[in-house]
Design goal:
This protein is mainly α. 45% of the residues lie in helices and 9% in strands. It has eight helices and six strands. The longest helix has 14 residues. The chain is extended and about 65 Å long. It starts with 10 loop residues before the first strand and ends in a 17-residue tail after the last helix.
Length: 181
């Protein structure tokens, strides 16, 4: 496609690796070394979305863009257009906290077992009877949310994901007839 990574604008962040290896890899790639949390698309990656400080950059951006509302000369229709424009420009990452994109992650992890994210989660949390483990309190808030949607926990909308996804029984490698929910 012709797209290339601009390493001078990129940052390498290490998780569970030594600082020496991280610095050596960053030097070889000619990029910076970063630390968690960091800002990506206006949101803090590695931050806690339950804290107000996590959302402050998004709220500030919305407030700055809506400053035109103070104008007396902006009609009601103009205000609606401005509001729609501001809300549609929110970072895509912020939308990952809604249920539908989280359901997409559940589906992706169910279908693409050889994919990068499945392998990362399997390495971190392990697999039990063909399913990724939840990870309990040591799991990231993102992964706990995905696992709760997968498992149909009632306080986040019940079993809508399980009711919407059907598994086809094949050779028994992917589906365990007696133990799968």
């Amino acid at each position: 496609s012709g797209l290339k990574v601009n390493f001078s604008k990129s940052m390498l962040v290490g998780v569970n690796i030594s600082e020496t290896w991280l610095h050596a890899a960053a030097t070889a790639l000619r990029c910076k070394v970063g630390k968690i949390p960091f800002i990506y698309l206006g949101l803090s990656i590695g931050g806690d979305p339950r804290r107000l400080s996590f959302w402050e950059p998004v709220l500030n951006r919305i407030q700055n863009r809506l400053s035109g509302w103070r104008s007396r000369f902006l009609s009601f229709g103009g205000r609606l257009i401005l509001l729609k424009s501001v809300l549609t420009s929110l970072p895509v990452y912020a939308l990952s906290f809604f249920k539908a994109p989280s359901g997409k992650w559940c589906w992706r992890l169910l279908v693409d077992r050889g994919g990068l994210w499945f392998r990362v989660l399997a390495a971190r949390y392990g697999i039990d009877r063909g399913r990724l483990r939840e990870g309990g309190r040591s799991g990231s808030s993102w992964w706990r949310e995905i696992a709760r949607i997968r498992d149909g926990v009632a306080d986040i909308g019940g079993g809508w994901f399980g009711e919407s996804v059907v598994r086809k029984v094949g050779d028994g490698v992917e589906t365990f007839f007696w133990t799968d929910p």
